[in-house]
Amino acid sequence: MTISTHRLARETMAFVLAGGRGSRLKELTDIRAKPAVYFGGKTRIIDFALSNAVNSGIRRIGVATQYKAHSLIRHLQRGWSFFRAERNESLDILPASQRVNERHWYLGTADAVTQNIDIIEGYAPKYILILAGDHIYKQDYSLLLKQHVETGADVTVGCIEVPRHEASAFGVMAVDDSDRILEFVEKPEDPPHMPSDESQSLASMGIYVFKTDYLIELLREDALSEASEHDFGKDIIPALVAKGNAYAHPFSRSCVTSSLEQKPYWRDVGTVDAFWQANIDLTDFQPELDLYDQSWPIWTYSELTPPAKFIHDEKDRRGLAVSSMVAGGCIISGAQLNQCLLHTGVRANSYSELNGVVALPNVDIGRGARLKNVVIDRSVRIPEGLVVGEDPEKDAARFRRTENGVCLITQPMIDKLDL
């Protein structure tokens, strides 16, 4: 019998884990959770997981929030309020609120689901899809659901192929030829390799599919265990692997690509360097991630802004941008941009020179500033004549400078400058 992916999606609830801080992003997550960090000119990181769910046909979604959630909750309210209850659609925001145990917030990824079992049972989905809310990728989850049903697995784990020498940073699984998971280990020194390629390993994407009734049974057992850390990757998944009915689903089988994308794209933009690089990569002539693919749109909160504007046409004072992405509401006023990504409402003033700049919304760049390889946080005011990216020692003394030479600039850092 042919399994309808559309029917499976309608029988599924997606539960997005969006409570993580993302401390490796440093000051970018001082006031917002990692899933709420801006990305790609107008979206936030969480928009990718949510868009994948909607585009896959899933219309029941819960988002668990915890760390500094105001920015994230406001974004969800503004940009994701189009679900209609009369069509059996919903998006529930589920803050950690000591609903089950008054002694603690969410203890781990599994506990975040446990504390919302009553809400899940109220919707009575047949399947539940656990998602991480902090990665950049396009995936058709209905194909993952289909494999789960066809194999009769207790759990199906979404995974990506990574070079074996890089796999120690992930939860890694050993599988047999039928994709049954034989072993699941967190950040191993000697990662197991794929059966078909000894140079590659399968790393967990933090995506899991369960039958809802079975997951609830597992979670209630886990909640009673004092030895458990109440985490999917550390407790739930290894226990199911030991029982012998856990399966892997390689990302390459369900990734969504346009005619312009040559290979599956997945990024964890969890460091300042990775965040800067993934944004700058979007400015390439043919980027690895196609944000212009209308068949798989990335939904988000779209602010009402005028078009971007480029003004002045004089020697050394010409508003222009080369190999760059400039969002609505930006004004390039006699500034020169090369390989930059500007989010909504950025203003670059006369005689400024920007190379490899990722500017979050409403940044104002003063006259004559020269900036190279920087990430600028939201609403920062860059002083006139500021130079960043030419003197490594001076940059490191004033800003957050990474090993790869990328500088993160926030307003408190600017306020401390002796100008």
Automatic annotation (TrEMBL):
**Residues in Glucose-1-phosphate adenylyltransferase/Bifunctional protein GlmU-like C-terminal hexapeptide domain copies:** 306-409
Enzyme Commission number, as recorded: 2.7.7.27
Kindly list the residue ranges recorded as spanning the membrane: none
> Which transformation does this protein catalyse, written as a reaction?
alpha-D-glucose 1-phosphate + ATP + H(+) = ADP-alpha-D-glucose + diphosphate
What broad class of enzyme is this? transferase
Positions of alpha-D-glucose 1-phosphate binding: 106, 171, 186-187, 204
- Pfam families according to UniProt: Hexapep_GlmU (PF24894), NTP_transferase (PF00483)
Indicate the annotated site residue(s) for Could play a key role in the communication between the regulatory and the substrate sites: 66, 105
The UniProt entry, under Gene3D superfamilies, shows: Hexapeptide repeat proteins, Spore Coat Polysaccharide Biosynthesis Protein SpsA, Chain A
| All residue ranges annotated as the Nucleotidyl transferase domain in the record | 14-283
What GO biological process, any one, is recorded here? Answer: glycogen biosynthetic process
| Keywords for this protein | ATP-binding, Carbohydrate metabolism, Glycogen biosynthesis, Glycogen metabolism, Nucleotide-binding, Nucleotidyltransferase, Transferase
Give the metabolic or biological pathway: Glycan biosynthesis; glycogen biosynthesis
Molecular functions (GO terms): ATP binding; glucose-1-phosphate adenylyltransferase activity
Entry function: Involved in the biosynthesis of ADP-glucose, a building block required for the elongation reactions to produce glycogen. Catalyzes the reaction between ATP and alpha-D-glucose 1-phosphate (G1P) to produce pyrophosphate and ADP-Glc.
Family according to the record: Belongs to the bacterial/plant glucose-1-phosphate adenylyltransferase family.
- What is the annotated quaternary arrangement, including any partners? Homotetramer.
Q: What is this protein called?
A: Glucose-1-phosphate adenylyltransferase
The organism of origin for this protein: Ruegeria atlantica
